[in-house]
Each structure stands twice: as C-alpha cells, then as structure tokens.
Amino acid sequence: MGIFSFFSKEKKETLDKGLSKTKENVFSKIARVVAGKSKVDESVLDDLEEVLITSDVGVETTLKIISRIEKRVAQDKYVSTSELTRMLRDEIATLLTENNSVDTVDFSTPIDKKPYVIMVVGVNGVGKTTTIGKLANQFKKAGKSVYLGAADTFRAAAVEQLVIWSERVGVPIVKQKMGSDPASVAYDTLSSAVANNADVVIIDTAGRLHNKINLMNELTKIKNVMQKVVPDAPHEILLVLDGSTGQNAFEQAKQFTAATEVNALAITKLDGTAKGGVVIGISDQFKIPVKYIGLGEGIEDLQVFRRKEFVDSLFGE
Predict the structure, then answer these.
(1) Which phi-psi region, left, alpha or beta, contains residue 265 (left: φ > 0; alpha: ψ -120 to 50)?
(2) 264-268/290-294 β-pairing
(3) pLDDT tens digit string along 89-132?
(4) Angle, in degrees to the nearest 10, between helices 307-314 and 9-18
(5) Which of 39, 119, 197, 199 is the right S-S partner for 234, CB 3.0 to 4.6 Å?
(6) Rounded CA gap, 307 and 302, in Å?
(7) Which residues does residue 162 pair with via DSSP β-bridges, in sequence order?
(8) DSSP output for 52-81
(9) Distance CA 195, CA 173 (A)
(10) Is residue 26 predicted with pLDDT exceeding 80?
C-alpha cells in the first residue's frame, strides 16, 4: 500500500459531498416507496425497481438487483422495510466487485511499464481534457514525471486547453499545428518521453462519434504508431464519460467499447448531478473497471474509485 493510498478525511468529505445529490434523489424515492409499509412485498419491489431505473442505474442492472433481493426476501419469508436498504446496499456492493477488477489504490503505475502510456478517449464535452490535466497533477504529486500529447488536432480549443493544463500542472506537452496527423503527435510524444526517461504519458484523442469506422481506424492507427516507440503501448485506454448525462453515458460506452479496447473508465461531473447511479450500471454492464471519478472543478477533485467508500457514501456511512 503506497503513501498515497490512505483514504483521508478530506477525500471522504469530497466524496460525500460529490454524491450528495444522488443520495438525496435515490433515498428520498426509497423512503416514499416504503412509507406506511411494514414488510417488503411485491408492490414494494415493483416500486423499488422504478426508483433504480429512474436513478440511471440502468434496466438490466436494476433487474439483476431486484431479482437478487426477491430471492433473499423469499428465503427470509418476512423482511421488514428497514432491512431493504441494507439488502440494496449489499447487492450494489456485490455488483461492483463482480467485474473481476481490483480497486485502484492510488495514482501509481506498474513498475515494469515505463513509460506507462494512457490513451484517453471520449466525446467532446465530457471533461476529457480536464480529466487529463487532473490526472497529470495527481501523477506528478505521486513523484512521477509526466508528458502530455495533444493528439486531438481537429479542435483548436482542445489543444489550447491542454496547453493551459500543462502549464498549470508544470508538465511538458507535445503538440503540432492544427489538422496534423494525430498518430504523428502520439509518436513524437512517446519519442520525447522515452528520450527523457518519463514515467507516464497521457495522450488526448479526438472525441468524434459521427462515424464509428473512422474513429476505429484513427484510434487503431494511433496505437500502431505508438507501438513503434513503446511496443506494448498503450497500456491503458481510458474512456471518459460524463455522469450527468445518465443513459447517454451508457450509449457512449457502447460506441467506444466497440471502436477500441477500452480497459478503464473515468466518470466525471458526479458532483453536479443526481444520476450517480450510472456508475453502478456502467460498471456492471461493461465489466470494465471504473478507475477514476470526478467530483468537482478543483484540480484535486479527481479521485481513484474505491468501491467500498463509494457505497459507504451513497448509503450514508
């Protein structure tokens, strides 16, 4: 367990605050479901199903949760409504552990991967560039040397924003003129990083979804070119999703997982939404670990996703 793995009081407060709208939304609805009821029956479960679906947990994941609770209710014969929250908590915690992933403990990287190459994907507007900047800050705080690559060469704003983040964090950035080949930017970034013995490379990519074939071809080309410098790059393909978009985030996850081999997720903007249930559904449906969550605008408001702490905050413990 590294020096940065401790879950501090400040981090817990940030997490609690960030999930407060989701908690208030979900549990006020659950309170209405069980009001005046003495036990969990079919009508309570039907209402609970509706609560979860309207909280952006997703239909398939909701049906899975309800099915498991139904089995427990049938076994226990009599279940009070006060026990329903505990059961719900148990089942959500179980679901979050079933994608065979291990919680990311801190902002460290595998010691046998240097540089550790992260390719970041996601549509425009989800907080992709901001997430890259916050990640760079956290890696730097952890003692890592970081390089940024501005391979979203189709939007001047994307490059400009990444330059601002590189200056704010104090890490080098590699960029080319607008319209340049994104793969060329990635190649130059990795070449510079290797020459300077960097620990981490984070590559931004264009966030276009209007043509999945073009997107797939572009991301594949970037990967192939990077492998000329670092043979097993990228080590991580991080998909950034905007948690406040609810079900739209599911659709984006479908599109990007079809276009490239996403193996980690960052879910942003959870502090401004009551749709934090999307974290549960996406984790369950795509079996891709949620690695980071965004809980605010501040440079420190990106946290590694810890399942236990997430459930504790959601259920008020």
Answers:
(1) beta
(2) parallel
(3) 889 888 888 765 566 667 888 778 899 999 999 998 899 999 99
(4) 60
(5) 119
(6) 15
(7) none
(8) HHHTTS-HHHHHHHHHHHHHHHHHHS--BH
(9) 14
(10) no
